[in-house]
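Reply to dn_fold:

You asked what the input looked like. This is it:
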Amino acid sequence: MRVISIAAFALCAATSVPGIAKNSDELNLGRMTPGFSYFNRPYTNLALHDADMAACLADVANLHSYHAKMGGGAAGMGILGGLVAGAQAASADRGALAASLENCMVVRGWRVVHLDDDEGKALAALPATELRARIAPWITSEQPHGEVVRVWHNDAALAAVNHFSLHAQHTGNGQLSLLALVPTNSTPPGAAQHQEVDQAIPSKGAIDPTWPKRSLSPDTLDLIPAKAAIIVVKIKGVSLRQGTGFVFGREGPDTNIAASSVDGAPDKVTANVAGIAASSDGNFRVFAVPAGRWRIQSILNGLMELNFCLGSPAFDVGAGEVVYAGQLDLKQEKLEPNFDLASVRAWMGKSKASSIVRAAIYTNGSRGRCESSAIYALEFAEAPFAPGYALGSQVLPLK
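and this is what came back:
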């Protein structure tokens, strides 16, 4: 784990981006709100603001921008390592950090409040302690100074929202809540704890080669290992804007330990549909997997991923079971699984699996390891929540 300073986090190229994400068709989950902003949550205090910022800074520590994955900027160092390097860090890396930091705070119940450019620039130029004193009353106010431009809306489920940014544009020094963290040249609060956890993560063990690696066809469904379960999903409505598929991940002992490192069995499958192969009726993807709890880990688009480490729907599948995760239509106005078992049985044909397939029973609020290109949370409206989950729509009002 890399130890960095608050000043290194704030090191951003001054990129001007027009437009403010005031509604869903302007929002891009791969970019920060353009301009100058801070985080606000009524009836709170600076201690909670700083604690949530520290938690979010830890959550974004393992991200890599699309640019870095393609070999540009500070590839291989991660976003935070790139920031320490300063001049070697790509602006896309810094933009990805800013976007995910904002996403994380929104999931934790904070509002994004925008200021006009002249005021924002003047505030950003202040020493951190003076800036903190100026915006402290605004951070906790019911009627904050400026314009509230973003709150939690389960945006990842909305087809009107752009899920990805090829280049995560950002405004240099635009996140005033970040600049106001003090002391400015020390490890952020909570980062040392994250460092210890990160170092304790075991590497993934070798996957048992008897597990099929690819999506199965109807004529091979009855040839899977006896210890296996089957997950079926139908992907529909793929696009470069909303995505081309989903990654399903198996929960491990905790969010920092990969399930595969414990038992050598697969801990993720990728249900992706290439554009040229996409059917207007949707495409089935079927995987032989170990029993366990499987979560929607991310939506992907090539090397870009929107990772739902902050909470996502999950379901259980036992050995020998066949579970239909539903039709997931990325162009549906609001993403919800459609469980048409007749269609999946018809696709499976005469296989044994077709006679025992059942619909997945989703539960919201499954946490995972934060990685990939950007982080957020996803909820299904009809699913209950895991006990103790308190993010997204489950953030309790403080008044």
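The chain is about 25% helix and 20% strand.
Hope that clears it up.
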